[in-house]
C-alpha cells in the first residue's frame, strides 16, 4: 500500500485526478473479455410461515426477502444445508428499507424460507442469463492526486453494471445525481455470504438496491471484496471517476448523493465490505484496502479520521453527532457492519490517521 502524505496529496490545484479515486488507465493484461450475463429476476409472494420452493430450470443465485426476520436453507446434491438467519444491511434514500438479502448456494434444487410475516421474495440470477455485453478492462489500482493503493479497482463497467436499470421506462433517471461536500464516512458490511465471483454478488446487490428496493442505484459509493479489490458503487458522473462529481465547488470535491443511511445520505460517503461480519471479521486484505480508501477520502475531503462530526443533512436539516469514520449502527438501529467487525473501527481509525501522518 502506498503511503499518503498530507503535505503532498493536495499539493497544487486539485485537478481531475484528485476528484476521483481512479483515473482508470488499464493495461492490456487487465482486460477480461468475459461475457456479461443479463440479470434474471422473478418475484414470488409468500405468506407468513414455512415455505419450500423449487428453484426451477434456472436456479437463483440470490434472494431478496422483504422481511428483516426469518431463516433460510437450501438443498443441493449433498442434501439440506444448515439453517441460517436472514440478515440485511438496511439502506434507503429517505426511508429505511430492511429487505434481507441471501446468496443461494451453487447447485441448489430447492430452498426453504421461514418468515415471521407475509412478504415478497425476489429471485435473482446474475450468472446464467444471456450475454448482453462484454466486461470491460479493469483499472489496476485506485489513485487520487497521484497516490495509489496496491490492488485492483473495478469500475461499474468492469463489474458489469447494467446502466439501463438506472432509468425508468419513460427515460427518466430513477435517482438523479445531486452533489454535496463530504462531512463524514460510514462503513458497512453487505451481510451477505459471498459466492465464487464477488462481481456477480455486486451485480446482485446493484439489482436489489436499484429495482427491488427502489433506491434507483446501488446504495454504496465503494465496495471492497475479501481479496481487497475495490468496486465503484453509486454512479457519480460521466467522467468515469467514482464517488465524486466532475465539478469542484470552492476547490472542494462534491460527492454524489447515495442511499446507504436513510435520512443521512447527503454528505455521507458509504464504503461497504462484502461479507457477513456477524460472527467473523473481514480479511486482512479487505481491512488494508478499507484503511487505504478511508485515508484517501479523509485527505481529499479534509476530514480528521480520529475526530467527531456534527453532521447536518443539507437537504432535510436532520442532525447527528458521530465519529467522522463511523459504522452504520452508529446512525440507526442495525447490526451493520457486524457484531464482530464494529468493535474494530477504533483500530481502523487509528490506522487511517497513521497513514495520513506517514
Question: How would you characterize the overall build of this protein?
Answer:
GO terms for molecular function: N-acetylmuramoyl-L-alanine amidase activity; zinc ion binding. This is Peptidoglycan recognition protein family domain-containing protein. It comes from Saccharothrix coeruleofusca. Belongs to the N-acetylmuramoyl-L-alanine amidase 2 family. Residues 151-316 form the Peptidoglycan recognition protein family domain. The structure is a single chain. By secondary structure, the chain is α+β, with helices and mostly antiparallel strands. It has two domains: 41-125, Sandwich (Jelly Rolls); 137-357, Peptidoglycan recognition protein-like (Lysozyme-like, 3-Layer(aba) Sandwich), CATH 3.40.80. The protein is 16% helix and 29% strand. The chain is built from six helices and 24 strands. It has helices spanning 6-9, 16-19, 156-159, 198-212, 284-301, 345-357; strands at residues 35-37, 40-46, 49-54, 62-65, 70-76, 79-80, 84-85, 100-103, 110-115, 119-125, 131-134, 142-144, 147-149, 153-154, 179-181, 184-189, 222-224, 230-232, 244-249, 252-256, 268-273, 308-312, 319-323, 325-327. The strands form seven sheets. It has a six-stranded mixed β-sheet with strand order 14-18-17-21-16-24. Strands 3, 5, 6, 7 and 9 form a five-stranded antiparallel β-sheet that branches. α5 packs across α6. It is globular, with a radius of gyration of 20 Å.
Amino acid at each position: 500500500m502506498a503511503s499518503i502524505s498530507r503535505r503532498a496529496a493536495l499539493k497544487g490545484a486539485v485537478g481531475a485526478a484528485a476528484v476521483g479515486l481512479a483515473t482508470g488507465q488499464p493495461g492490456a493484461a487487465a482486460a477480461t473479455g468475459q461475457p456479461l450475463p443479463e440479470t434474471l429476476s422473478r418475484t414470488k409472494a409468500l405468506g407468513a410461515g414455512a415455505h419450500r420452493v423449487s428453484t426451477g430450470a434456472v436456479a437463483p443465485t440470490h434472494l431478496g426477502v422483504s422481511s428483516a426476520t426469518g431463516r433460510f436453507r437450501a438443498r443441493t446434491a449433498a442434501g439440506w444445508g444448515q439453517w441460517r438467519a436472514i440478515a440485511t444491511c438496511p439502506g434507503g434514500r429517505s426511508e429505511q428499507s430492511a429487505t434481507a438479502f441471501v446468496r443461494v448456494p451453487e447447485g441448489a434444487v430447492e430452498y426453504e424460507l421461514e418468515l415471521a410475516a407475509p412478504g415478497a421474495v425476489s429471485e435473482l440470477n446474475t450468472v446464467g442469463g444471456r450475454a448482453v455485453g462484454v466486461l470491460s478492462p479493469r483499472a489496476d489500482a485506485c489513485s487520487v492526486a497521484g497516490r495509489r493503493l496496491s490492488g485492483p479497482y473495478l469500475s461499474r463497467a468492469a463489474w458489469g453494471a447494467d446502466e439501463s436499470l438506472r432509468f425508468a421506462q419513460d427515460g427518466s433517471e430513477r435517482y438523479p445525481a445531486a452533489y454535496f461536500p463530504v462531512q463524514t464516512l460510514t462503513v458497512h458490511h453487505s451481510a451477505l455470504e459471498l459466492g465464487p465471483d464477488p462481481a456477480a454478488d455486486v451485480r446482485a446487490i446493484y439489482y436489489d438496491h436499484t429495482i427491488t428496493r427502489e433506491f434507483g442505484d446501488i446504495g454504496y459509493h465503494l465496495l471492497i471484496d475479501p481479496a481487497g479489490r475495490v468496486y465503484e458503487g453509486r454512479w457519480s458522473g460521466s467522467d468515469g471517476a467514482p464517488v465524486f462529481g466532475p465539478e469542484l465547488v470552492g476547490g472542494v470535491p462534491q460527492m454524489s448523493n447515495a442511499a446507504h443511511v436513510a435520512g443521512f445520505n447527503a454528505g455521507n460517503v458509504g464504503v461497504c465490505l462484502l461479507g457477513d461480519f456477524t460472527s467473523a471479521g473481514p480479511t486482512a486484505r479487505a481491512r488494508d484496502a478499507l484503511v487505504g480508501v478511508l485515508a484517501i477520502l479523509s485527505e481529499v475531503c479534509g476530514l480528521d479520521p480520529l475526530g467527531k462530526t456534527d453532521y447536518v443533512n443539507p437537504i432535510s436539516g436532520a442532525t447527528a453527532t458521530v465519529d467522522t469514520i463511523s459504522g452504520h449502527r452508529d446512525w440507526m438501529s442495525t447490526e451493520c457492519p457486524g457484531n464482530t467487525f464494529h468493535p474494530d473501527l477504533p483500530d481502523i481509525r487509528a490506522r487511517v490517521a497513521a497513514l495520513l501522518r506517514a
